[in-house]
Structure formats: structure tokens, C-alpha cells
Amino acid sequence: MIDVERLSYTYPRSAGRAIDDVTLTIDDGDFVLIAGDSGGGKSTLVRAMIGLVPHFYGGAFDGRVRVAGRDTRTNHPRDLADVVGFVAQDPESQSVVDRVEDEIVFAMENLGADPPIMRKRLEETLDAIGLTSLRSRRLDTLSGGERQRVAIASVLAAQPKCLILDEPTSQLDPQSAEEVLSLLQRLNADLGLAIVLVEHRLERVVQYAHRMIVMREGTVVDDGVPRDVLQRGTVATPLSRVARALSWEPLPLTLREGRTFARTINTRIPHRADIAPTGDVFIDVKDAGVTRGGNEVLKRVTFAARAGETVALVGRNGSGKTTLLRTLVGLLKPHRGRRTIAGMDPSKASVEAIAK
């Protein structure tokens, strides 16, 4: 499906290579996870697989990348769209039109598909991705997970043989991420679609992948079955670190597998009593409400945080986390209630004062 042969690449005005002599093959039906530290070359590698490198970014390109037999040096990204699709980290950056249905059709129009074929593919894609009930919705009314599914659907409408995704769950809450990953697994299993996935949160993905490629400083440093790669310790998840420290065999990939081993441990972990923060109240929110687009996003929120305290703000996409943070720093104004930071009202204090 994808053949990368001795690929080396340097971005314009860059002193070092982003990719250094990489050779690998991805077959039809593979589910491949590309892992590694930031700056290791993961995103550059997948950009080369879809032709953005070098056609969009420029730079120095050596070696060869072929997708379904097509050389990316002589075929631009638009010439590869019917065989390989790409979903970026931020789904909003890929959207062109306002409605779900129109967004999916737009990709097919660009490929010059006939209207009867477009209508048929639209219905098939909506059904396959589970978007039929959302087909008439505006994109700006969807949650993060729904937006990501629309981005995937708009690419799948071209019926490519391979789908490449660059950190598709990075902006999603755990439940939405699980829904997207389960969708990818189903597309891989039911349609035989090859999946190439760049991801940092390995614990979310390792259970689905057939193969893990680890990159570091532009080179491939490990390549194999995920369980074996984690056992070697080239990269690690929180669970694999615990498992290797306790010599669990075989190394568990999921929490469900980990619980099986945990039942065999007799070590008692000492209890450490929680220490209540003693600093002065630094953030104080009382009965705050915020309305956006005619909808009340925050509803009578009340909480306080003290100096030196660490507070985790959690919840599903669309539950109001970002709106609350924007309200705290003065980017949004509540229509009811009040909030103060270090005794200051963000509505009256300067941005510079709040930033300090």
C-alpha cells in the first residue's frame, strides 16, 4: 500500500534533517501506530505519505515514497486523494462548509464524482460513520468527537484504501476518544481499510494497533507488535512501566489485562492522608453563568481554589471547561454571578494584571 524507501527530508531553513534514511512498508489492511517523542519526525513522515512533503512544504527531499504504486514526487496530494486520506489533529482546520452533509459532499465534488455516485456514497458514509442523525446539523454546533467523525467521513467519501490520522484524539475527552478509536477499528476490520495513526497517548491506542513504529530524531528506532515494543521499553505507557517494574508476563496492554495481574499482588500500599491546602483563596467563582450562541454553557458554577492548590478540571467535550477558563481570565463575561482572581474582577482589571 505504502512503500517508503530511504527517505530523508529537511524543511526549508532548517539545520537538521526531520527524516533521516527511513525505509518501511505498510500493507493493505494494516493498523499501524506511529509513536515517539515530539519532534521525532512522526508528522513529517505521514506528510510525506500523502505528498504534502515536499509539494506543500518545499525543502530537500531524497529517497522515494510510493502510495498504491504512485510516486509522491510526481503525484501531488490531490492526485493521491482517491487512494489515501488524511485527517489532521484539529478537525476545524479541515472543514470548508457549514453543514455536515455539505462537508462530506465537498470532498467528492473536488474529485469530480458524478451526482448519482455522490448521493450513493453520501448515504453509505453517513451510515458507516454513524452521522445520519447529524446530517443537517451545522458544524459549529457539534462536539469535538462529532467534528472528528465528520472529518473522517469527508475523507472516507473518496473511498481511499488507506486513512492517515495525525493525533486525532488529542483534543478529545476519554469517552469521545474511545468512540473515534472504536470507529477506526471497525473501519479497519469491516472494510479492510489500512489505518496509519500518529498518537502520543499510547494507552488509548495500543490495544487496537497491529504494529507500532517508534521514531526518534528522524529515524525508526523500533518496529513490531505493540506488546513487544512496550516490553522492550522503547516507548512506554503508564501501565507498561508498572508491568515491567513488576516483571508481569505477558505485558498487559489494557487496564482490564492489568487488573488480572494486580489481583496477584499482596503488597499493601501505605495510606497517605490528604493534606488540605492552607493558602488564601486565589480563585473565587460564585453562581457564575455564561451564555454563548443563545445557549447557557455555564449554569450557576460555584467553586474556589487556594494558592498552592492543584485543581483538575475534567469533563466531556462541550461540558463547559474551556468556557470556564476563558471566563476566569476575562475573555468571556458572565451574565450572572461573579468571579475573582487574586481579589481582582477580570471584567475590571487589565489583561496584563490578570496574566501576572
Structure characterization notes:
There is one protein chain. This protein has helices at 42-49, 52-55, 77-80, 100-110, 115-129, 144-156, 174-191, 202-205, 226-232, 238-245, 255-262, 321-328, 351-355, and strands at 2-10, 19-26, 31-36, 60-67, 70-71, 84-87, 162-166, 194-198, 211-216, 219-224, 281-292, 295-306, 336-341. It is α/β, with parallel strands linked by helices and 356 residues long. The strands form 3 sheets. It has a 6-stranded mixed β-sheet with strand order 6-7-8-3-9-10, with helices on both faces. Strands 2-1-4-5 form a 4-stranded antiparallel β-sheet. A 3-stranded antiparallel β-sheet has the order 12-11-13, with helices on one face. A hairpin with a 2-residue loop joins strand 9 and strand 10. Helix 6 runs parallel beside helix 7. It starts with a strand and ends with a helix.
Summarize the topology.
Elements: E1 2-10, E2 19-26, E3 31-36, H1 42-49, H2 52-55, E4 60-67, E5 70-71, H3 77-80, E6 84-87, H4 100-110, H5 115-129, H6 144-156, E7 162-166, H7 174-191, E8 194-198, H8 202-205, E9 211-216, E10 219-224, H9 226-232, H10 238-245, H11 255-262, E11 281-292, E12 295-306, H12 321-328, E13 336-341, H13 351-355
Parallel strand pairs: 3-8, 3-9, 6-7, 7-8
Antiparallel strand pairs: 1-2, 1-4, 4-5, 9-10, 11-12, 11-13
Helix pairs in contact: 4-5, 4-6, 5-6, 6-7
